[in-house]
Every structure is written in C-alpha cells, then in structure tokens.
Amino acid sequence: MPSISRDEVAHLARLARLAVTEAELDLFAGQLDQIVAAVAQVGQVADQDIPPTSHSVPLTNVFRADVVRPGLTQQQATAAAPAVEDGRFRVPRILGEEA
Amino acid sequence: MTELTRLDAADIAAKIAAKEVSAVEVTQAHLDRIAAVDHAVHAFLHVDTERALAAAKAVDDNAAAGLPAASPLAGVPLALKDVLTMQGAPTTCGSKVLENWQPPYDATVTQRLQAAGVVILGKTNMDEFAMGSSTENSAFGPTRNPWDLDRIPGGSGGGSSAALAAFEAPLAIGTDTGGSIRQPGAVTGTVGVKPTYGTVSRFGLVAFSSSLDQAGPCARTVLDAALLHEVIAGHDPLDSTSIDAPVPPVVAAALEGANGDLKGVKVGVVTEFAGDGYEPGVAEAFTAAVDQLRALGAEIVEVSCPSFDLALPAYYLIAPSEASSNLARFDAMRYGLRVGDDATRSAEEVMSLTRAAGFGPEVKRRIILGTYALSAGYYDAYYGSAQKVRTLIMRDFDAAFASVDVLVSPTTPTTAFKIGERTADPMAMYRADLCTIPSNLAGNAALSVPCGLSDGLPVGLQIMSPALQDQRGYRVAAAYEVARNAAQGGPLINRVPELEVAH
C-alpha cells in the first residue's frame, strides 16, 4: 500500500492553504500514514463493477420558483468581515511582488 | 437543583399548559442550574440568558392572552449545538476561526424551534466543525461527562449530551455526520436520534460533510425526542437536498411503543458489530437489551451486513474529502479570523497563516487527508472506491430491511473513555464511530437509547430503520425504554451522580 511521506504532507498542506510547522509535519506525517493505511482497505472493491454513490438521496435538478426574495444587505454581508473599506471587503493584495 | 430541571420535556410542557408553572420559572430554573454546574461540565459555549427569558415570557404572555400554545413543546428550554446559526449570538463551531462570529441569518432548525415556542438557552460545545468523538477537539476546552467528570461526553455533540445528563436542559439539538448525536447519547445515558438524511433542513448548519450531515433531536426520553423531531423536521426549499415528504409519525410511534407490545416486529441483530474491540460490559448490556426486545414480543434474527466492515474506512475518505472542500470557505476574506494582514503579505499568505492559526490539529489532519484522497492519481483508488463501498452498504441495508423491520447493534463499542486517552491516536478515536457510520453513508434513520450500565457508565442500544421509516425505531425504542425502566428500577438517567453545585 502507498504510504504518505513527510514531503507529500507538506505539499498537500500547501495545496490546502495551511501553513504547517515542522513539528506539525512530523506529527501529521506519522498519523496520516497510519490513517491512510487503514482507509486503503476500500481498495478491495476498486476493480469491482459497482456504481458509485455520492449521495444517499437521489434528487436531481432541484429548482426554486423564479421569485425575487430579499438577500443580505451590504451592511449585513460585511458586518462580520475582518476588514471593510467603503462598504466593501478589504483584502490583502492578490498578486505577488514579482507580478 | 429544583424539581423543574429533573422533569422531562413532555411533563414541563404539560405543566406550563396547565398553568401550574410559568415558562419563565422553568427557564430561570435551568439558567440557575447552568450557573451552578456548568463550571464543572462546560456544556455551553454561550448562555443566552436575556433572550431565553424573553422567549419564555412570550410563551407565558401568549397563554395569558388565551391563545393556543405554539406547539406541544412551547416554553420548554433547549440547548442548541454551536454549529447551527442563531442571530444575535456567536456561532463558533468550536473553532478559533469563527470565534465571536455573529451569523447574519438563522438556521431553519433555529427558526422552527423559535416558532414552536421552544426556549433556546444557549449554544453547546462541540468538537471543532463536528470532527471528533469526544468534544476534546473544541478550541474552547473539553466538555466533561456528568457521569464521571474525568471522562468524555462523546462527540462531536458532547455539549448537547452533557447538558441533558447534567439536567441543564431537557432538550438539545445535535448534528450527526458519523455518529455525533448517537455516540454522545450512548455515553451519557441519553436519547439521540439521527433522522433520515434530508428530513431536517441543513440550511444554517455549518457544513462539515454535506452528503452526511444531519441535525436531529437529543433528549432524556424517547417521547421527548419524538416531540422535538416533529418540531424541527419537514421540507425546506432553502436546502436543495431536503426531501419533500411528510414527516414520519414519530410521536404516535413513541406513544404506541410505550404500550410495551412488540409482537409482529422483526428485529435484526447485525452480526458484524460484535466480538473483538467490544467492551465486555457493552456486549452484555446489548445482549440483555436484545433479550428484553424478545420478551416484549419481537422476533429476533441475526443479519449479516458484510460491507459494514468497510464503512469506517469509506467514511474516513468521504467525510474528509467533503470537509476539505467545505472548509475552503474559511479564507480570511469575508468573515472569521484573519491573521498576518500586515500590508506586505499576499492574500494567499494571509489565508495560509489564518488557517494555520484558526484550525486545530484534527481539522488540519482531515483537510490534508481529504486533499490527498481527492488528488489526481489517488482519486479512483480512494474516493472512487469509497463511493462504491457506499453503494454496497446501501445494498446491505436494503437486503436486511427486506426481511426485518429494524436493525440493532451497540451504539459504540465502549463506554465513555478518559479525557486524553485517545487524543494522540486518531484511529482509536475514529473507532468510536464504527457502528454509527453505516446509517450516515446510507442516509437511513438511526437512534440510540440507553440500555444499562457497564462499570457504572452508560451503554447505548442503536436501532436503525429504513429511510423515511423513522417511526419504526421510535416505536421499538419506546417499548424498550418502558420495559428497561420497569426492570432496572426507573430511568437510567436518575443514577447520574450529583454534581457539585457552585454557590
């Protein structure tokens, strides 16, 4: 069974936008290796022809009536924001220095 | 502790309706109890004192004006798990990332409770984003089990279960993604119900694993759970996975079951959920419960559900995968915590630093695991296979329910473990959900009802019903509850040790 390396955990954490410490990497790599080994049991059915289930309730195309209803006001939407400027969400720069 | 806090919800509602006691007196008695014991239990993250009293007064005013009660639970206090939004109070999900976050809208469950005249006392503690089986993953400290304060109250809804067992509230709301209502119910000697997926709205329930999350009732009796079930269930257009079907007649089933006759009911014992890993005291209490069901007239048969052995591994791929996607919303931009925004760092750096500071270890582990399971090259082997297992589990349930009315098993393999005992070993923690997970993956109804003690700690009997047949489990549970109370000298919950009261 594939095991999960420390470098792989670091890569996954970057993909998930999680800054992890060296100590966390050490801890998580060992634990995730155990967890992955355990969950890999599902591989028993990998080559069987079984339809996948993503959801227990077979509902498709659920539409609501095309009626206007009130949403949040600008004030409500920004009330819990970490930073607001001129009634808008203020966010850090999106582009890198080199861009 | 006053007598009022010992009463069941149905009795409280009857006394309020008969004007023997006011809703305000009932609410005050529970607020006093919280003030007296929650320092030791830590079931609540937020106590909503003033609004609870105002809601109770509204019920009394309504009655004084001669108007009919809003529901059979009007004036009854309730503890709300902190994963459901309620305006005017924080919704934290047990996470630093949402510390002090005030939601701009109410969950449908919250709205239905308020419309029914149920008095919401406050928000209960939980494992961070409902990930855990012990409430130790809360960023705000663990909740303690009233049966033994050194032990866990189950999780993720340990605040709700502990509030019931500590007589801080007669009713609570939990959410169950892998067992987070039933396992806490089992280890605190209370009743916990996971309704059929799609029958209680998820609108305003902060998402962990959307295809599995389901809110449900927690109480000290089966009838109380049924009464609460009928208040919160029903179709909601704001949740696109909500099932547009009548609410199963769970109150009628609980009342019917209380007659104590289970003749004609066929009960299947799941053979996979026994043996190694099951505490002897749990196995004994379960066997005695099955004997009790037989004595009530039920026909008992053994049923094998072979795919249930793969339920735990499938769950720990599906739930983290969905979680890694759902929790991407905590990006430090629109709400919640923001760390490191010093005008030099980029949005991406701020996002990473915020998520590192805001999420606890279990949430991080699951995000990384989910990211792994969904990544190119592993998707088919892990997530794809887990979805196939989900199909097999549904087939096992279908085959079983073709020959039996309900399935039974222990709710969880052990009684409440010690705080700290499993925190360093995630797989040991995950195994607490071994018996509860299949019903999340298949979406059917399942509940836990107290079935005795093992070394002084409560054991739960799990009763599983087919989807949209929730009433079957209620009938069997109510019949069992009456018989167990008669055989074992009254409700189990009355044997909770007295908590030390603060003055």
From TrEMBL, chain A:
The alphabetical list of record keywords is: ATP-binding, Ligase, Nucleotide-binding, Protein biosynthesis, Transferase
Q: Which Pfam families match?
A: GatC
SUPFAM superfamilies named among the record's database cross-references: Glu-tRNAGln amidotransferase C subunit
Q: In the UniProt record, does the keyword Protein biosynthesis occur?
A: yes
**One GO BP annotation here?**
glutaminyl-tRNAGln biosynthesis via transamidation
Q: What is the recorded name of this protein?
A: Aspartyl/glutamyl-tRNA(Asn/Gln) amidotransferase subunit C
Q: Which family does it belong to?
A: Belongs to the GatC family.
Report which gene this protein is encoded by: gatC
What this chain does, per the record? Answer: Allows the formation of correctly charged Asn-tRNA(Asn) or Gln-tRNA(Gln) through the transamidation of misacylated Asp-tRNA(Asn) or Glu-tRNA(Gln) in organisms which lack either or both of asparaginyl-tRNA or glutaminyl-tRNA synthetases. The reaction takes place in the presence of glutamine and ATP through an activated phospho-Asp-tRNA(Asn) or phospho-Glu-tRNA(Gln).
Q: Which domain of life is it from?
A: Bacteria
Q: Name one GO molecular function term.
A: glutaminyl-tRNA synthase (glutamine-hydrolyzing) activity
Q: Which reaction does it catalyse?
A: L-aspartyl-tRNA(Asn) + L-glutamine + ATP + H2O = L-asparaginyl-tRNA(Asn) + L-glutamate + ADP + phosphate + 2 H(+); L-glutamyl-tRNA(Gln) + L-glutamine + ATP + H2O = L-glutaminyl-tRNA(Gln) + L-glutamate + ADP + phosphate + H(+)
SUBUNIT field: Heterotrimer of A, B and C subunits.
Q: Which Gene3D superfamilies match?
A: Glu-tRNAGln amidotransferase C subunit, N-terminal domain
E.C. code: 6.3.5.-
Organism in which the protein naturally occurs: Actinokineospora cianjurensis
NCBIfam families for this protein: gatC
TrEMBL record, chain B:
What's the superkingdom here?
Bacteria
* Listed EC numbers: 6.3.5.7
* InterPro entries xref list: Amidase, Amidase_CS, Amidase_dom, AS_sf, GatA
Catalytic site: 81 (charge relay system), 156 (charge relay system), 180 (acyl-ester intermediate)
Which transformation does this protein catalyse, written as a reaction? Answer: L-glutamyl-tRNA(Gln) + L-glutamine + ATP + H2O = L-glutaminyl-tRNA(Gln) + L-glutamate + ADP + phosphate + H(+)
The protein's matches in Pfam families, at most eight in alphabetical order, are given as:
Amidase
Q: Which Gene3D superfamilies match?
A: Amidase signature (AS) domain
Among the GO molecular function terms of this UniProt record, one is: ATP binding
Q: Which GO terms describe its biological process?
A: translation
Protein's UniProt keywords contain Transferase: yes
Decide whether keyword GTP-binding is in the record. no
The function of this protein is: Allows the formation of correctly charged Gln-tRNA(Gln) through the transamidation of misacylated Glu-tRNA(Gln) in organisms which lack glutaminyl-tRNA synthetase. The reaction takes place in the presence of glutamine and ATP through an activated gamma-phospho-Glu-tRNA(Gln).
Q: What is this protein called?
A: Glutamyl-tRNA(Gln) amidotransferase subunit A
- Which source organism? Actinokineospora terrae
